[in-house]
Amino acid sequence: MHPLLFLSLCWLQLPFAAWASPLFNQTNIQHPHLGDYTHSHESIEKPTYTCVSLGQCDICTPLEKKTASYCFQYGNKEPVRCEWDDPNWYTNRSDPLDDDDVILLPTFRPCPWVQRIEQLKILKFESINLAVAVCSLLVFLWRHRKLSREKYQQLVQRIGA
């Protein structure tokens, strides 16, 4: 199809497509028996807590990588001890908590890297660089001796000794 014909057909159908397609209804129609739950979570004040690291970052197990939320981001976990910022928050609550409603403080948090693995990566990188440097030095010395030997042979042939 010719490009100009194609563009003209698209241009002609554009206003029709806008007229024919239903627009997103932006009016807020609420059912009389249902409440507005869209922003209900904003009015609940969440208790805050602070966590202190208890140890080094470690790799999550394969099961934890699939099930634990702290392993989703990096695949690593760091043990932590968390405490409520307001120690009386749990006891001052007016509504009783069931076993299902209890808010558990985290015991682990995600961490971006494991120190011992990063140290092994650095050691591996440095050892590969050292091996390449040693190989390069050996090739340089061998080539230098070979060229020196060839220059000496050329000198011996010129002198005729």
UniProtKB/TrEMBL annotation:
Source domain of life is Eukaryota
Leader peptide range in chain numbering: 1-20
**Assigned keywords, A-Z:** Signal
Q: Which protein are we looking at?
A: PSI domain-containing protein
* Pfam families hit by this protein: JTB
Q: Which GO terms describe its cellular component?
A: membrane
What InterPro entries is this protein classified in?
JTB (IPR008657)
